[in-house]
Specification:
The structure is a homodimer of 277-residue chains. Chain A has 277 residues and is an alpha+beta fold. Chain A has 2 domains: 112 residues, D-amino Acid Aminotransferase, Chain A, domain 1 (2-Layer Sandwich), CATH 3.30.470; 150 residues, D-amino Acid Aminotransferase, subunit A, domain 2 (D-amino Acid Aminotransferase, Chain A, domain 2, Alpha-Beta Barrel), CATH 3.20.10. In chain A, 29% of the residues lie in helices and 29% in strands. Chain A is built from 7 helices and 16 strands. In chain A, strand 8, helix 4 and strand 9 form a beta-alpha-beta unit. In chain A, helix 5 packs across helix 7. The interface between A and B is large, with 58 and 58 residues.
């Protein structure tokens, strides 16, 4: 067997019901994470975000079921001796009849494993642009990683050969990258936008705020950022589960030359990733 | 063969790829419509809304492909001698690799047919409530019927035994029902909220605005409505592809006693539905 490999409700398979509410309405949650040396990286953070999403959407699935699905995959991966894999776990409300109110008998849980470059080989010097596609303000769905991602799909379509695009909310405040969170460094502090109106509460973002920055003696402040703040920053960082902590070399026409905070956090991150769980 | 019956890309089948972007991101469009006496009702309106959605999301699919998929279904239905069926046509961007930017080789086109009560047997006196789940303001996605419908899913979960819930946008203006559009009658005019910030441009709504109301000598005004406007209205109507034009008997504690506009529009609608295409 080779990657990609897929499981649906604990059984190898790559198809789901056409009547799945994940397909009908994006009525689902997902987690994308690295499996590194046979272990799911930052798993506790991913699981907690999934559970937060379950509470918001009311999608039932016992943690035991999620973890046994994952164990199946890890057992299989073990025999492949892969150091790094990209995993996507999706939890949808399940197959149901027509209409928003239609009930599903059981949620659908899928897991896909695919190849991915090792972290340390992810090129660090990202080029980013500001996308025009705004993020709507919807506090009910902010923070969680749900299956309604058309705003990200449209923003991604704006990208040419850039590595990432930043998205603002409809008030013009920078919120996050299309598939990353964003930090800037200024006057010795790390600043990152809150994810209370829109945006996803990323797991690497959380690792930085709760563990990596404190370990490195860096203060992190959650604060609203405007596009003007980006170009007066000394450094810009992107964080994501699959790419870790990336340095931004260029945002539009603005070139960043410092990488001091990024270098420090990355070293802590590589260490953290191997010992935290 | 009995209903429900499903086709995927022109072939009978009820499963899709786990890697379909419709499942991954709600990266899709759909149309729900009636097949009445073997013909898709208000088909031109549905097709035009689908095409508008394709332009917004950049999902490619030739009209010929959509229509031949539908013809297949109608041919099959013909032999079943069904007067009424509910159809859902979904067009997703298709199966693709990981990530928002990942390209799909071909869009996925699915069609499901299911049983439905005849229009004239849909109970007219609906009870509705105002839902608490707001609709985010996102003009880019307004009007079209895309696959990101968590706001509707959450609002539908607020309903107990009511027939429908109304949703406001984040400014507190009433926009539409969870799965319907809304009209109120006041001082001889029909008022309905615009769908430029959020909400779906319903096909029965369009039929009323462009054909039924003018035929009935009723003026329709698109205007912002607040919850207070609902209880001072003489009449309230809900419109949807599957239920046609429903009279609202009760909105929260407020009881509507007039059904004059609704009765007139319904008679025009039953006629229109059989002769317009």
């Amino acid at each position: 067997m080779t990657l990609p490999f897929h499981w649906v409700n604990g059984t190898p398979g790559a198809s789901i019901s056409l009547s799945d509410r994940g397909f009908s309405y994006g009525d689902s949650l997902f987690e994308t994470f690295r499996v590194h040396r046979g272990r799911p990286h930052l798993w506790r953070y991913h699981l907690q975000r999934l559970q937060a999403g379950q509470r918001v959407l009311g999608i039932e699935c016992e943690t035991r079921r999620v973890e046994s699905q994952l164990e199946l995959a890890l057992d299989w991966l073990g025999t492949q001796a892969l150091d790094d894999a990209a995993a996507r776990l999706t939890l949808s409300r399940g197959a149901a009849g027509r209409g928003y109110r239609s009930a599903a008998d059981m949620s659908t849980l899928t897991l896909s494993l695919d190849t991915v470059s090792p972290w340390r080989s992810v090129p660090s010097a990202a080029r980013v642009i500001l996308c025009e596609t705004p993020l709507a303000i919807q506090p009910l769905l902010a923070g969680i990683k749900h299956g309604n991602r058309l705003e990200q799909v449209l923003a991604a379509r704006e990208l040419q050969d850039e590595d990432e695009g930043l998205q603002c909310n409809s008030r013009g405040e920078v919120v996050c990258g299309v598939s990353s969170n964003v930090f800037i460094a200024r006057d010795g502090k790390l600043l990152t936008p809150p994810v209370v109106d829109c945006g996803i509460a990323g797991t690497v973002r959380r690792a930085i705020m709760e563990a990596l920055a404190p370990s490195a003696g860096l203060e992190v402040v959650e604060t609203r950022l405007h596009p003007d703040d980006l170009v007066t920053a000394e450094e810009m960082l992107l964080t994501s589960s699959l790419q870790g902590i990336r340095q931004v070399a260029r945002c539009g026409e603005h070139v960043f030359t410092s990488s001091q905070c990024g270098d420090t956090l990355r070293e802590h991150f590589f260490h953290f990733s191997e010992s935290s769980e």
